[in-house]
Amino acid sequence: MRCSGLFYYGRSNAFRDKVVKPMFRLFIVDDNKYERNGIKESIDWQSLGIQVVGTFANGLEALTRIDELKPHIVITDIAMPLMNGVEMSERIRQSHPDVKIIFISCHSDFEFAKSAVDLGIYGYVLKPIIADELERALHKLLAEFTEQHREQMEKERMMQQLEGMLPLVQEQFLKEVLLGNFRNEDDIRQRIEFLALPIIEHATMSVISVKCPRAEGERERQSAMDAYFQSYSIKNRIARSETPERAMVPVQFSAEDYAAIVFDQQGDKQGVIDAAVQLNTSISAELGIQATMGISTCSRELTELERLYKQSQKAVNTRFYSGSNPIILFEEIDDRSDSPFEEMPSLEDVYQDMKALMSFGSGQDIEEFIGKYLNDESAKHGESYVKGFALLFSHLTGILLLESNQPGHFGDNAAAWDKLNRMSTKEDVVQWVRQTFAAIKERLTDRNASRNVKVIGAIKQMIHDNYHEQISIEDISKSVYLSGRHANGLFKKETSQTIFDYLIQFRIEKAKQLLKEEGSKVAAVAEAVGYLNTSYFILAFKKNVGMTPAEFKSKAALPL
User: Fold this and answer.
1) Top mean-pLDDT range of 101-110, 445-454, 547-556
2) Reported pTM
3) How many domains does the chain have?
4) CB neighbourhood size of 458 (10 A)
5) 222 and 274 assigned to the same domain
6) Which of UniProt's keywords are assigned here (predicted)?
7) Which of 209, 358, 380, 410 gives 20 to 30 Å between its CA and that of 525?
């Protein structure tokens, strides 16, 4: 049914805005030629920033030209021959979802028009059309277009800024991944793609922690420019270590702490070690920094990067080493049998620290332990934490005494808790922990000292018999039925060097003997003394002897 609506040409001055360059394209669709022309002629479209690019008698005609003329807005009647406004709107929504549609309608089919709300129709104007009403609908629509345009321009501006800051944003994202703040594989991959990170797909990943300590007082003397240049130089050398098969992505955590995320296409662990050796040599020779590095195990899962980073940190920060080797593999120091609290890292840390202190810790070490767990000013521990930690301390002390075949120290748990509750200040608890350490250490040191001598002898014999094999601290400590930390502490207390230092020293001495033999080859000597990686052997040899194996061999061959 059609209605012969009259078009009212009255207009308010409120819409006579200044003329602007047309920005938006418009279709007018109505089977009544007079109404089509009336809509077209009655409104100052240019002042609205709109250009009428087509008028059509039905929906089918409009659809045939939509791809060519690309309208932003369609004003359409509903009841039309061949294709009505509802069917046309449905097709436009499917093919051009960003086009805004305004219905014009008689009262008789207005209710029918309401049923098309799910088509995303932007507005309705009743016939007979009043120009002001149509302009109000258009102004509302244009305001939305303008806001969308503003948001798009803002997004483009932000993307331009992001592009200029991309290296910093990339590094910050990778830092967050290493710290465990992103744990969803799909989320990580989407961000890697968005940030255009140089990641090799399906690569084996590992993490190298790089510690670049500065000499005493150097930080105060170093200018801001020098500090930034040093950071840039270290990260640049990490990035330059990459190959077509191996990406090396640098991440800085502080002025002294860096990480290199390694993506290796071939899964070559020896290649990663070689890259670490070359990087260490470059930092030392070109920057004069004696860096220490810790290398993690490998994984193919991006969500494992947090674990790999923790491994590399454990390696680079381990207490087992005193500087004899600047590159430490996590496999060399991993001791999975050392604690009964594998699922509770915080308990494991306390257990390990207490075990080391009770065996060979000094008074200063005990004070550091108390400072770490009870007197940390930044943590501001409350009463419940202090007493809870003290109860944990009492439980772990009992475990450690049982491991040493010593009777318990505290009695039952209820008595221990009662004693702790009677302590009125944190200092009471601290003093109690201090006294407990002293009492336990005195009890343990009264044991037969000859046992320690036998243990040290057994460790040395284990190294003498197996130095040419791939042995770790865990292997050596297991041979004397001790944990890695306990065995290492006992060995250092009696010999003034760590087990690892002794192993390296013994291997180097054996290597020196073999290098003196006529016809010996550096690679063969390295393998004969337990080094599968020749570069790794050369670095360790030079660190301990002061010259490379080749230089030592040449010098040894000279006549006396």
Assistant:
1) 547-556
2) 0.49
3) 3
4) 16
5) yes
6) Cytoplasm, DNA-binding, Phosphoprotein, Transcription, Transcription regulation, Two-component regulatory system
7) 209
